[in-house]
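Tutorial handout. Part one gives the primary structure; part two gives the three-dimensional structure as tokens.
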Amino acid sequence: MLVIDASGRLVMANRAASELLDAETAVALRRRQLVFADGEAQSAFTNAVAEAQRKGDARAIVRGNDGQWRPVDLRAWRRSGDQLVFVSFCGEPASRLEMAGLVKAFELTAAEVEVLRLLTAGSSPKDIARQLAVSTNTVRAHLRALYIKMHVRGMVGVLRQVLRLVR
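Part two.
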């Protein structure tokens, strides 16, 4: 969770948001301003901040600096005459720690967890194979195992199950 003022300057960031800013994966911080590498993302974010200030809340979908699409929820709040906006980056790829419950519930192997983590990060089976240095057939075998263990059909079913259980 980030808190920015009416001009878009960072006021406060919790630990998760600080880590996000330090990594510069979703957004970077330049002179206390949130800066996206993609101009359209910057514009969408700026418009969402203005909308949140007018209406109280807003949502935007922006492309992070790492190329991943992320929904961003914004909520305006007045404090001592100043208007602050709470910014929450949603849909961050699930970390290994967040997946611990899934690992236990579905008895996932380490390879299945890696495939699932990369899938929730938005990678295609072909990209996952490249990142893990395995064949696409191996990735598809892990995906089939996930479908069976999670009692779902297809990648969309897996993603729905993860969103329902992890968030």
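Part three, for discussion. The first helix runs from residue 15 to 23. The mean pLDDT is 85.
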